[in-house]
């Protein structure tokens, strides 16, 4: 299940990047900000998964 979560978080980050670029290209600041937020969420979730993995290896 952890690999599935990692994939979901990576997709969320990637979609956020695309949304940010779309907002930037069209001048839509709201879409751009939403994209940045989605990227940050994906990155945070990925960091949590990495921390869990490190804990499992050490523990």
From TrEMBL:
InterPro entries: CsbD, YjbJ_sf. Residues 10-39, 47-59 have a biased composition (Basic and acidic residues). It comes from the Bacteria. Residues 1-59 are annotated as: Disordered. Transmembrane segments: none annotated. Pfam families: CsbD (PF05532). This is CsbD family protein. It comes from Saccharopolyspora ipomoeae.
């Amino acid at each position: 299940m952890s690999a599935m979560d990692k994939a979901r978080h990576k997709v969320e980050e990637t979609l956020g990047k695309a949304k940010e670029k779309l907002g930037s290209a069209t001048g839509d600041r709201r879409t751009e900000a939403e994209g940045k937020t989605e990227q940050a969420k994906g990155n945070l979730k990925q960091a949590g998964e990495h921390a869990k993995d490190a804990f499992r290896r050490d523990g």
